[in-house]
């Protein structure tokens, strides 16, 4: 029997905003959907999957929506390939309608304190790789498998606004001439300039997390530009979830993870006519905002 349900993939979905995105996608009833809750750790992913599946069968026992679990470590190219091979086998070559690049985060010190604002080369390298390269690699490999009307969402941060950069960088980051290679050079340039202590001379702030997320905002704009004439009508967006209570931020953030999930789920499910003109843009609280 032909399965006409949409296929959604959420990375880093075993907890926090990612798990909340899975829950919210499953609770919408307009478009039947298979939601892949993915996680790098089998045990943590399986636990989250069991919990969400139980909820779904309790709340919507007859729902066509379905949650599935698959292991996916977005820092491991083999893991991404394995997952895509699996999707292709199950759903065909064009297999994905929604990709939410949610996995990411900060570096924690041994005392559990968040050190995302620490700016040494090792931290900068780790955070840029955890947030920027993981999402770019996952998206690049999924792109050929996106179905018509597919949407790709990047979870970013309000800390990554353009005003944190100086000199030529703000102009370069929004330029229509910026290529993926150029963007990689900027991110790598940040890491090495942190090592040399020269990051400020090049216009970078001492904030690895913000520089990594800014790379994703620029990437979302770039993809919208590159795929503007693609017959599949693809949609890309970068989303600031707001400051939410999760393991990344701790218990004092003003929003719940479920609130951080609202805008990405809105963009994943909204009528195409309402959002298409904002392709590649930055969003917060259900609204397109200026970068
Ligand atoms: N919370 C906020 O206020 C806030 C604000 C701005 C942006 N964000 C962004 O929103 C997203 C979700 O954040 P959160 O607050 O929900 O953080 P979180 O609770 O720490 O969850 C992060 C998730 O990403 C996963 N992850 C990390 N590296 C991964 C990898 N290589 N492969 C697969 N999964 C990986 C983690 O898995 P493990 O459990 O295995 O570590 C976890 O499931 C992140 O991109 C974050 O930067 C959050």
What does this entry look like structurally?
Helix 3 (77-91) packs parallel to helix 4 (121-142), helix 4 (121-142) runs antiparallel to helix 6 (180-196) and helix 6 packs antiparallel against helix 7 (208-226). This protein has one domain (6-108, 134-162, 212-289): NAD(P)-binding Rossmann-like Domain (Rossmann fold), CATH 3.40.50.720. Helices cover 43% and strands 17% of the residues. The strands form two sheets. It has an eight-stranded mixed sheet with strand order 3-2-1-4-5-6-9-10, sandwiched between helices. A two-stranded parallel sheet has the order 7-8. It starts with 5 loop residues before the first strand and ends with a strand. The chain has ten helices and ten strands. With 291 residues, it is α/β, with parallel strands linked by helices. NADP nicotinamide-adenine-dinucleotide phosphate (NAP) binds next to helix 1, helix 4 and helix 8. NADP nicotinamide-adenine-dinucleotide phosphate binds at residues 11-12, 14-18, 39-41, 44, 72-75, 102-105, 130, 134, 155, 157, 241, 243-244, 246-249, 253, 257, 260.
């Amino acid at each position: 029997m032909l399965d006409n349900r949409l296929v959604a993939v959420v990375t880093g979905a075993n907890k926090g905003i990612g798990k909340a995105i899975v829950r919210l996608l499953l609770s919408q009833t307009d478009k039947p959907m298979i939601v892949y809750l993915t996680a790098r750790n089998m045990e943590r992913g399986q636990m989250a999957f069991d919990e969400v599946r139980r909820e779904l069968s309790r709340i919507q026992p007859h729902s066509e929506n379905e949650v599935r679990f698959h292991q996916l470590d977005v820092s491991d190219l083999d893991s991404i390939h394995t997952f895509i091979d699996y999707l292709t086998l199950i759903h065909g070559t064009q297999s994905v309608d929604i990709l939410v690049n949610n996995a990411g985060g900060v570096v924690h010190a041994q005392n559990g304190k968040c050190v995302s604002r620490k700016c040494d080369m090792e931290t900068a390298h780790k955070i840029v790789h955890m947030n920027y390269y993981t999402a770019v690699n996952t998206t690049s490999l999924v792109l050929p498998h996106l179905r018509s009307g597919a949407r790709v969402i990047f979870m970013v941060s309000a800390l990554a606004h353009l005003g944190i950069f100086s000199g030529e960088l703000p102009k370069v980051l929004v330029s229509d001439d910026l290529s993926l290679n150029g963007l990689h050079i900027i991110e790598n340039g940040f890491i090495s300039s942190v090592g040399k202590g020269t990051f400020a001379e090049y216009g970078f702030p001492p904030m690895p997390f913000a520089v990594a997320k800014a790379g994703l905002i620029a990437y979302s704009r770039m993809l919208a530009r590159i795929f503007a004439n693609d017959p599949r009508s693809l949609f890309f967006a970068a989303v600031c979830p707001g400051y939410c209570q999760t393991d990344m931020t701790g218990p004092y953030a003003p929003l719940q993870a479920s609130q951080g999930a609202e805008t990405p789920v809105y963009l994943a499910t909204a009528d195409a006519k309402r959002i298409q003109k904002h392709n590649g843009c930055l969003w917060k609280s259900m609204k397109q905002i200026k970068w």
